[in-house]
Description:
alpha/beta
Amino acid sequence: MLRIGGSDGVVELALDRPPANALDTALARAATAAHRQAVAEGARAVILTGRPGMFSGGLDVPALLPLPRAAVVEFWQAFFELTRALAASPVPVVAAISGHAPAGGAVLAIHCDYRIAARGAFKIGLNEVSVGLPVPDCIMLAFEQVVGRRLAQRFAMAAQLLTPEEALAAGLVDELAEPDRLLDQARAWTARLLALPSTAMNRTRMLARAGLVDALRPQADAELAADLWFSAETQAGLRALVARLAAK
């Protein structure tokens, strides 16, 4: 589910759960543990990426939909522990967005310090509303921090997915790269950042993220997300999504 590599103090974590890098409890926990281990072993920066053409397609709805509430809460808590680990990371994290990143894929990216997206016929954004799932409070807060309140409201309420070029214009991503240059550009960004005095750089980046980090409460956020998940409207939307996926 996860490939780990890197060099020179930069650890590269690549989501690798074919076909869509869909997020379930096991993948969320594996990514959190890998990030924690990288930091414990002295990583100075982390690059989070995916498979060619697919950063992450979001939640594994077909697997999650039949689960009882306790298991759904368990998933959301694992997911929010991952997003908090990214947001509160003591070292910089760059998202090298290797392809499509709707919904949960975009959520992971907006909790990183910097986002570089591969050019191509890809889509990124928070489209949860299209399947009847309100965007959870903590995710909206992170989205607002990246693109500003006005654009976050506009994009999220309309379930708008953006091309890489549109995402760049909106500030959702910071750079674009040709797919075969994506990791090179991510490594170059980390190298520029790591050339700076480390204490000053990391203290400043964490100060900028303190409000978001303080607001993230994985257990409480998971209970709220589960409440939304089991609403009648959301369940109907999720069942319709699973039916469409099964018909492909």
